[in-house]
Every structure is written in structure tokens, then in C-alpha cells.
Amino acid sequence: MNITPKQYNRMAAEASPKSKSYINIPVAFAVGGLICVLGQIITNTFKNMGFDKDISGIWTSVILVFLSAVLTGTGLYEKLAKHAGAGTLVPITGFANAVVSPALESKTEGFVLGVGAKLFTIAGPVILYGTAAAFVYGIVYYIIS
Length: 145
Known about the structure:
Layout: H1 5-15, H2 21-48, H3 53-74, H4 76-84, H5 91-105, H6 111-118, H7 124-144
């Protein structure tokens, strides 16, 4: 079967489900906002307990990553993402989900070749280039100061 790119695009458009942007965008905005509100509540709670801003932020990050990993492990994050779409991509929770998901999918292959090898499949490049950029930034900062 030989089809042109134009025919392929038309066939793909017909087969694709129609997006309900008028619903999806507000829901994603609301869920992303609620995740951020949860983070702010956690931060404020730690501040009210007497922790300084930096320590409160660190604990907030740890708790959000932990909650995201637990929700991913129990399958609830996927259900939330199914309805909330891009709203679940709030950087810290989405990153934790991206680290945990491939590891869970390959747990039947064992801890070393399964979980260990697949743990950073998606997040690995982010960690690698983030670390490299931080290293370069540190050198530039050192030279300038």
C-alpha cells in the first residue's frame, strides 16, 4: 500500500480522538494549581513549625516527591493523569512519576537488570544534562567571582 503524506495525515486525523480543549485545559490548570497549593500548604506548615524558608522548601520537595512516588506505585497517579492531563506535569511531581514508572514496569526483570537499569530511563537525560549544566555554571561562576 502506497499512500502520500497528505493521505496519511488525513487518515490519522480521522482516526484520532477529538480533544475537548474547552474541558481539558481548565481541568489541567485546576489540578496543577491544586498540586501547587498542596506544596504551599506543606511549606507554610513547616514555616509555622519554626523551620526557615530553605528547610521548609527542602521538606516540601521531599514530601511531594514521596507522595508522587507512592501514588505512582499504587496506580493512582496514572488515574489522576488520565483525567487531569498536563496538570500532573507540575515539575517535581511529574519528575518523580517519570522516575518511578519505568522502574515499576520492569520490576519483573529483577532489581538490578529491571528496576536498577530502568529507573532513570526517562529521567536520566534530565539528571545528566542538569548535572553537566550545573558543573559548567559552577565553573563560570567561580571564574567570574
